[in-house]
Amino acid sequence: MLGYILRRVLQMLITLFVISVISFVIIQLPPGDYLTSYIASLAATGETVDQATIEALRKQYGLDLPIYVQYFKWLWGILHGDFGYSFSWNRPVSELLWGRLGLSVLVSTVAVIFSWVSGFLIGMYSATHQYSIGDYLATFLGYIGLATPNFLLALVLLWLVYSTTGVNLGGLFSPQYLDAPWSFAKFVDMLKHLWLPMIVVGTAGMAGLIRTLRANLLDELHKPYVEAALSKGLPENKVFWKYPLRIAMIPFISTVGWSLPGIFSGETITAIVLNLPTVGPLLLGALQSQDMYLAGSLVMFLSFFTVIGTLISDILLAWVDPRIRFE
Length: 327
What we know:
Number of strands: 2
Shape: globular
Helix content: over 70%
Strand content: under 5%
Strand order of the largest sheet: 1-2
Number of helices: 16
C-alpha cells in the first residue's frame, strides 16, 4: 500500500509540472497581454497612454521577456512562496489568494459534506426500499436536482428567504461585518449565511450521488454472492454493509477527484449570483483582463486540488478494492 501511494505521489508531481506549463501557455495564447486590455479599457473611456509609458510598464511587469523566461520566473517564485504580482489589483497574488482561498475551502468543504452525507443516506434508503413512496420521492428529488441549474436555485432561495423574512442572505457576511476583524459575532453571522451556498452548491452533486449509489446497490443486492451469504444464515445488515455496499461505493468514491475542483471552479456563476468572496469570480476576472500571474496561480491551485482529490480517490479505492493495489 505504501509503494502504491508513493507511485501516485510521484505521478502527481509530474502531472502538476505538465499542467503548469500547459496552463501558462494557454493563458498567453490570446493576442496581447494585460497592458493591451488595460489600454483598450482606457481608450473606451477616451483616455490615451503614450508609447513611452507603455514600454516602461511592459518592462516593469516583465512582459517584454520571452514567454519561457516569464514561465520559469513565475515557477521559481511559486516554489519560494511568491506567486507574482496581480496587474489588475495592484497587489501581490498571495494576498488575493489567502484572502479568498480560506472561504472557498470552507464553502467547498461544507458543500461536499452535505452532498456526500445526504446522497449516501438517501441513496441507501432508495435502494433498500425500492418502489416505495420514499424511493419515488428520492428519485423525483434527484431528477429535479440534476435538472435545475445552481444559479437558478440560488435566485429562488434568495427570493424565498427575502420575501418571507426580509433578510438578504447574499454573500457570506452582513454589511456591518464585511470589513470587521474576526470575532465570535462575525463567525456566527457567517454561519447564518453559510447554509444557503451549502445547499445550492451541494445539491447537484447530491442528486448525482443518489442516482449512482441507488443504481449500483440495486445491481449488487441481487447478485448470487449476496443470496448465497443470506442463505447461509448471515445477518442481513452484516451482509449489506460488508459486501454490496462496499462494492457499490467504488464509483461513489471515484468522484472525489472531480468534486473538489468542480466546486471551486464550476460554481463561478453561483458565486457571482450569491456574491460569494471565493476564487471563482476572481479567476473569471483574471482571465478576462489577461492577468497572467493571478490566472496562472489560480489554475495551479485548481489543478492541485484536482490531483489531491484524485490521490484521495486512489487511496480510498485501493482500500475498498484490494485488486487495485496490485494493478
